[in-house]
Input
Amino acid sequence: MERTVLITGAAKRIGRGIALRLFREGYRVAIHYSTSEKEARATAQECGDAPLFQADLESVDEIRRMFGEVEERLGSLYGLVNNAARFRRRDPVEITEADWDFIHSVNLKATFFCCQQGALLMKKSGAGRIVNISALGGILAWADYAHYCSSKAGAIMLTRALSKAFAPEITVNSVAPGVIPFEDIDKRGERMIEATPAGRGGTPAEIADAVAYFLKASNFVTGQILAVDGGLSQK
Output
């Protein structure tokens, strides 16, 4: 039986890597994007002309609309990967309400409401798997990223709470990536790679491996946080 998995923020970077891996695993992949339509269409083409869903995740109404479209067009949903996220550096004494909302509206609020709407759809078919992409910043404290760290720590606690709320039919787990370098990596990221016990940065494929595991695991694996970080979080 073909199982549908919706991946938020799947147009590029880690989301794209997850989509490609799951397509190769035989899942029917659904691609969400917000503004990166060109990249989303390219990813969808690489995933066998996967269906595309556009939504501004800052809006709960948009999230509800998107899941309604998923049900209408695809019929059911087995997996949800909450990958969409925002990242921005700010000195905590300079953070404004707008800065705070910019991060939390997607990293935490949207993650919750996507989980909620995904679970409602999954319950109609009797089972499902949710994987939240958190971050190393939800485990370690970074001075100039207080708003980001709190949003990702919130996503981790959300994962644990919802794993209890949605059991036993639906599992909720989280993958916390370490440094996954792209072309725009900065000096700070390079220093973090140097401090990583594995001696290198990670790849989107390695994050996708962890996501694939949680999607395939039984409902005895739930509420878990898997750091895929080369050992950087071990202090």
